[in-house]
Amino acid sequence: MQSDRILSMLGLAKKAGKVASGEFSTEKAVKSKGAYLVVVSEEASDNTKKKFRNMCSFYQVPMYLYASKEALGKAIGYQFRASLAVLDEGFAKSLEEKLKLTEQTEERR
Q: What is the pTM of this model?
């Protein structure tokens, strides 16, 4: 149930024009300090995960691994997406709360 809310919120953020998706656009958003949250697919390559983990750490942007490439892409109207950046602080805070809850639930299992 929680995961559907996260994907739905990403869809809303995309409709509001507050999502940059794809590796190049996500990287550009983080480096230009426009990103408030980065979501990388759990299926992304180890290099991609490491790249965004290091970049987000340096620029102090929260990063979460979440969902499949297909699920992330579908949520924002594309076929596949390995990474995306949320460009709105309000959306980012709300998504981060939900992502933290999801992480805690998974840790208990």
A: 0.94
